[in-house]
């Protein structure tokens, strides 16, 4: 990836079968190619944040994505594919469901290895949300959307 930007788009929602994170490879001619499936990055969910960094110093940029629920760390295999190494990296969280929002790699202790900073959003429990119309001052609505990637 040195010198050429790749685009990582993260997914929102579980209702659309085609909803997934997306990785677009820079073709070096002002165009991009969707390489998500080939890269092994198909995953749906309530993704909120993404950061890219070489956390294991092997020369290949890795990807971390925050979700409502379990965040995911992908190790770059160096051959155009990624492996979910969340568990091996000790990043499985078994407490109350969190809503990961922002994230970034940084070497905060300057030891030459990237550290990972993750911010979580509000303390949200889907089973405790108010019923629609139950409170005139605090309400929410849900719409099911289908997004056409060709538009
Ligand atoms: Ca790496
Ligand atoms: Ca460090």
Index terms:
mainly beta, four-stranded antiparallel sheet, 1 helix, 9 strands, 151 residues, globular, three-stranded antiparallel sheet
Notes on the protein architecture:
This protein is mainly β. Helix content is 3%, strand content 30%. A hairpin with a 4-residue loop joins β5 and β6 (72-76). It is globular, with a radius of gyration of 18 Å. Mean pLDDT is 84; it is low at 13-17. One calcium ion binds next to loops.
- Based on DSSP secondary structure assignment, what is the total number of beta strands? 9
**Helical stretch tally:** 1
Low-confidence stretches: 13-17
The whole-angstrom Rg is: 18 Å
Could you give the order of strands across the largest sheet? Answer: 4-5-6-7
Which structural class best describes the helix and strand composition? mainly beta
Summed up, what is this model?
By secondary structure, the chain is mainly beta. The chain has one helix and nine strands.
Strand and helix map with partners:
Blueprint: E1 7-9, E2 22-26, E3 32-34, H1 36-39, E4 47-53, E5 62-67, E6 72-76, E7 82-84, E8 100-106, E9 115-120
Antiparallel strand pairs: 1-2, 2-3, 4-5, 5-6, 6-7, 8-9
The chain binds calcium ion (2 copies).
Residues 107, 109, 111, 113, 115 line the site of one calcium ion.
């Amino acid at each position: 990836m040195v010198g050429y930007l790749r685009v990582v788009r993260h997914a929102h929602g579980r209702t659309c079968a085609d909803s997934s994170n997306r990785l677009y490879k820079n073709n070096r001619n002002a165009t991009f190619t969707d390489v998500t499936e080939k890269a092994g990055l198909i995953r749906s969910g309530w993704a909120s944040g993404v950061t890219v960094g070489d956390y294991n110093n092997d020369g290949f940029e890795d990807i971390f994505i925050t979700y409502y629920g379990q965040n995911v760390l992908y190790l770059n295999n160096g051959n155009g594919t990624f492996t979910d190494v969340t568990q091996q990296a000790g990043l499985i969280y078994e407490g109350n469901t969190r809503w990961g929002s922002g994230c970034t790699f940084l070497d905060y202790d300057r030891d030459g290895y990237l550290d990972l900073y993750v911010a979580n959003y509000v303390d949200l429990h889907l089973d405790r949300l108010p019923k629609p119309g139950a409170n005139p001052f605090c309400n929410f609505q849900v719409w099911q959307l289908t997004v056409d990637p060709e538009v």
